[in-house]
Each structure stands twice: as C-alpha cells, then as structure tokens.
Amino acid sequence: MALPVKLICRTGQVHADGTCSIFVQYCCNESQKPLFGTDVKIPPTYWDKAGRCISERLPANHGDYNELNDELKRLKKIVEDIVTYAGLKKIPLEARAQFAKTHFSPTFDFNDIETKEKEAAEQQETEKKNRINVYYQFDEYIKSKKRKVSKATLTVYGNVKSHLLAFEAFRGQEISFDSFDFSFYEDFVDYLTFEHIHIRRKTVQTGLKLNTIGKTIKHLRGFIKDRAKRKIVKPIDLSDFKIPEEESDAIYLTYEEIAKIYQTDLSEHPYLIEYRDLFVLACLTGLRFSDFSTLRPEDLQRDMLYKKQEKSDHWVIIPLRHEAKLIFTRQFRDRIPELTNPEFNRHIKTIGKLAGIIQIVKFSYKKGNQTITITRPKYDWITSHTARRSFCTNEFLAGTPVELIMKISGHKRTKDFYKYIRITPEEAANKIKELWLARNDMKLIKESVTEMELQYN
C-alpha cells in the first residue's frame, strides 16, 4: 500500500530569482498535510507534474536533474520511513504528522529517533521525579512568591528549606511528600529544638528557640497546602502540625529613655550619630528596619511620611513629631546611609550603653521542657525592632486608640498588634488606675458620703 507521501512544487509561489521550492508532503488526513523542506529550487516550467519529478530539460545552470531527483527521492524516503516507524510504534494517526515534523531532518538516521525518544523518556521521568521532589517543589514555591512577598519572607522560606535539608542529612533518610505525618512532625520539632546547629553572631549554637521553630512549621504547612491546592500532590492531613509558640521576651523603651538616647553626647563617637538619629526616628514613627532604612526625600509631604511598607506592601501615612521632622530634614533629607541590620543592631547597643540604659533585664525561653534564663543590661537587648515595639507600646500607654496606632504601624490584625505591646503588670495596673481617675471611677458609689463611709466614722 502506497504511503500518502509525495513530492510537490509550489509553482504558484515564485521566488525573486524565478525559482520555486520543492517539498515533500505527507497527507496524514484532510486537516494535516505537513510540508518538509528539501532546499531544492527550480524554475516552475521544469517541474513534471505527472511524474512528480524534475524534467530532464532542466538547464545545467540549475543543477544536474538526475542528482536533484535522487536527492528528492532520498528525502521522500526519509519521510516514508518515519511514517512507517510511527505506525509500527502504534502512534495514533492524528499524532503522526507532528511526529514526522519533530523527527525529520535531511541527515535523518533511525538512531536519531531512538535517541530522541530516550531523551524524551528521561525528561518525562525527570519531570515526574521533580513533581514529587520536595526541594524542587520548594524552589518552585519560592519562585511563585517572588512578586508577592518581601525579600525577608523569601529568606524565611529559604531557611525552612535549609532546615529540611539539614534534618534529612541528620537522620539519613530522604524526605518526600509521603514523609509528612505526625511522626515526621515530632522528630522534626525535636531536631530543631535539640540538634540543629546554626551560627548566630559568629557563635555556633545548637537548637532553635520555640518561636523560630513555630515559624518554620507555619511556613512548611503553607508550602505543603500550596502544592496540594495546585494538585501537584494529594492533600495531606496537617491537623497535627501544631505551631509551637511562646510569648517572646522583648523590651521597649519609654519616651524618657528614647529622649536620653537622643540627647546623648556622641562627640567622641561621631560615626554613631546617624545610627542614633535613625533609631530615634524609627521610635517616633514605628517603621521597620526595611522601611526606615529606605526612606527617600519624596516620602515627606506636608509634615507627613508616606511610606509603602516592604513587608506588607501596604501604604502608611505617619505624622511627624518635632524631633522626627528635625532628624529627617536635617540628617537624612538628602541621604539615608546604607545599612545592614546586624551592623545597625551592633551600633545601637553601643549607643544604648553610652546613654545609660543599663537596667538589668532578665528574660527566659523554652527549650523542650527546660526554661533557659538570660540576664543582660537593657541596652544589650536593644535591636532595630525595639524602635517599632517602643512606638506601639508608648502610644498604647498614652491612650491612643488601637485602631489609629494600627493605621500607622500597618498591622492588619489586632492579634498581631498586641504581640508588640510590652508592658509590665505594674504598668498595666497604673494605666487602668489613671483611666479610672480620669473618669472619676475610683468609687463604685458616687455620692459625696456613702453609708459605708458613715459606718467607719
């Protein structure tokens, strides 16, 4: 049975040099009739339509007609062989046209098909493995988030992946999506608590704090749920993947302490002045390090700071106190120094010490069933985030409505905002007493002389 493969010359499509191209055509079906180029061109008058070949009358300056016909027969035979091979491989008829187009070349060899099929099979196997490879999928997850979350959050995602890799190496067992059950959760949390080795402030430490472990579990859950929603993996029951957390111990600075820092004489340490002023600016605006370290002159309009927060991608508008406006216009209107967070934290501790913020502060945290207590001078607990926490706490103590503070701080949930409030039980009691006095609520009965008072007289 003759195969539906033939030679054609498009006599109706003449090139500028007066020649037409000759093709091999495979008539797979009515809608699929692909053409395969031969690089043979002749004047249309020398194409023999009946014989589907080049006429012997072809002028010698266009080539030897016998050699050209032999080349055309060879190329036609290649297409026929590919179509025959497709039939032997039981490739569906409607797919054979594309199969022929994929594999045809003037230098075709049947080994090419075998090689390409092997490469395609290997590629499919690789893609199949990647679909269920946790780390490949984590990389894909991070890529999908690059335009949606801050750089800091992307770093957190990378840390979660690193923790998984370290845990895999520790226990010598590959982690797959099938691994994520309650036993994995318990072993992973135990590893992060007691075994994970990391470097903090150039010191090798073992074990992470509870809230850091909680953040790792939180983002691991988010990653797994995302892959399930995209139908990359089957849904996984994560109800037992509880997020461990504890109230973090962190200080805030009172307005008096912030004033002490602002008024500290740094004439012997002039390189610290811009760090000091930037910290005070942050204390008076509630901005994160990622935001106050990237302020621009145009962010100040009508005595207000207009800033799009990097973490939340949310605009905040912050009124400036006298000192904050003075710092911004005098020190940083033209340029915010290029800073790194570790460098900033190191210098602000030094400034706190020079300012006399030396009250001894004791904090504790959980490590398994143990309570670890650390005692340091207050200045040694100061970080860039202390500024934001101080702003929120001071405004809260001053009676500013929480909803208004959140508009400036950029918090979207009240629950998250209250994590920033750092007041002692005594401060809370005094604040309530102030409110009672302001409302004249120190007495239950408001008469000038109550019956009970008369009994005591």
Notes on the structure:
This protein has 457 residues and is an alpha+beta fold. It folds into three domains: 5-128, no CATH class; 134-229; 255-438, hpI Integrase, Chain A. It is built from 17 helices and twelve strands. It has helices at residues 65-88, 93-103, 110-132, 134-145, 151-171, 182-194, 210-229, 255-262, 273-285, 289-292, 322-330, 341-354, 384-397, 402-409, 414-418, 425-438, 451-456, and strands spanning 5-9, 20-26, 35-42, 47-48, 53-54, 197-200, 203-206, 300-301, 304-308, 315-319, 360-367, 370-377. Strands 1-2-3 form a three-stranded antiparallel sheet, with helices on one face. A three-stranded antiparallel sheet has the order 8-9-10. A hairpin with a 6-residue loop joins β9 and β10. The longest helix is centred in the N-terminal third of the chain and has 24 residues, at 65-88. The protein is elongated and about 120 Å long.
Keyword list:
alpha+beta, hpI Integrase, Chain A, about 50% helix, elongated, about 450 residues, 3-stranded antiparallel sheet
